Amino acid sequence: MTGAKRKKKNVLRGKMHPPHWEDIKQWWKRRLPILEWAPQYNLRENLLPDTVSGVMLAVQQVTQGLSFAILSSVHPVFGLYGSLFPAIIYAIFGMGRHVATGTFALTSLISANAVERLVPQSSRNLTTQNNFSVLGLSDFELQRIGVAAAVSFLGGVIQMVMFVLQLGSATFLVTEPVISAMTTGAATHVVTSQVKYLLGIKMPYISGPLGFFYIYAYVFENIKSVQLEALLLSLLSIVVLVLVKELNEQFKRKIKVVLPVDLVLIIAASFACYCTNMENTYGLEVVGHIPNGIPPPRAPPMNILSAVLTEAFGVALVGYVASLSLAQGSAKKFKYSVDDNQEFLAHGLSNVIPSFFFCIPSAAAMGRTAGLYSTGAKTQVACLISCIFVLIVIYAIGPLLYWLPMCVLASIIVVGLKGMLIQFRDLKKYWNVDKIDWGIWISTYIFTICFAANVGLLFGVVCTIAIVIGRFPRAKTLSITNMKELEFKVKTEMHDETLQQVKIISINNPLVFLNAKKLNTDLMKIILEGNDSSHPLDDVNKCEQNTLLNPLSNGNCNEETSQPCPCEKCSLVLDCNGLTFFDYTGVSTLVELYLDCKSRGVDVFLANCTASLIKAMTYCGDLDTEKPIFFDSVSAAINTIQSNKNLNKVSDHSEV
Asked: Which key words tag this protein in UniProt (predicted)?
């Protein structure tokens, strides 16, 4: 037995190979994406647009940092710290090149629940008011930021645990309608939380189930206590912000640098408030003292972690889902890949490390990311440059913001949420593509409004899975025998030269969020492999016959798929006879596949499509209207391909 064990150990040792330097290097590049793009950074082409974007981003980071800190029920200066440290951490570990991480409205709103529950406003008089140990702030303010930092720390730890468990592959369960409804509902909550500042009403903190309705009930009961000066200043600020931002959007192609209206408004409002002494004359609430500098790091209070567990889970899930959708959107727009699991690590570290520097929970924000798009940012260098200007504000400019009216800051928050609030327009899209997705959007939004963002998110995911499980048993699949007979008929009628350029693929299952990514990965792999001219004809035909797509699996394509087709123009015929039902994610995947193949010079034709699929694809994407792409049968599609080929030959002959 001893000799057998030794022999087995020797065999195992022989199979184990020591890690090569290249493997270690690749591992570090995967975990530190900055090592991938920083050495290739082009100073001449990228530095100027990144600098311009960084300056504009710094304006947003400062204004939103102050705003979201107040939303999180902590002192405004901690929002400036939350705009600095998470951005640096994400630039090192994150893969989204156009994602601006920092303070975030949804995570701030969630952490505010823990802050107000554990350190309520009523306890202000019970704390020591003469203890100014950190930056001249009272114990009350330090206790509040301690709770918010604990939420950030535990939320980051949860995200890092999810990274270790490789749960990024499960993010396909969170569909686009669920994300859209959840973020829209959460944005509605944020707007509601700012009503007291917009109207100048003194009101207690209201949260919990149906808290949304209780807030408006309180406002209508105390409508006579509305401060007219605050209301007029809020309306004026909102009108100015909306008009100038719309003008910036209209003329962004003609003007190289957009007007930073947020910064102009803050300066103008602070100066006007200082000159007219609105704080004392009209009783207008202002931001107050903002201390200089950054305090030394301090660990969050670990004794309250169990008390903030619910909020930490909300921050971890909501922050990650919202940030990942922005990262995937930028990756799709600018043709690069994002690893879902690496994003767990990046955002986890962006919450854990800054929590030691008095930071509130962080995530990527839609407004800041859209700002990077519009100003032409190229890499995360833009975010790092913005951090330099945030540091200048922290050390030099911060005290000048003392006179900034709270109603102006609330107006900036409300207008900044425009991108989320206009997602109501998505309802028309979901109604035309898949009415079940429309119903999921409505129900998820209602749950988010009535309860909270994390509850709405969980409800949307569970509801989506339950509906798909209920629909799958009624799905019919296409027999592979029929597909072989069809291919045999095509082979006998067409020339070998034509058949070698045509790939016929049958989709034998419903196309929903569960298998949409897998379908896209498998089809692109088949197209790229089939375009290799070294393949013999029999191998290509065999590939066509044996293509079956797994309905309940999810694939991650790590390869860059932007390279052009290496050989002659070929055609792809998708037989959709087995595609019995679909959702918005599935239709979007088909449209993206069509556009991707079109950019590679591959013609795509869809056969045996239902009327609802044709309507959904036509509405969802910018399809080629000059050439027919939908056919009643595969044979009709093949005949069209043959006719187009003959016309091209005649055209080439005429040119010669």
From this structure: Membrane, Transmembrane, Transmembrane helix
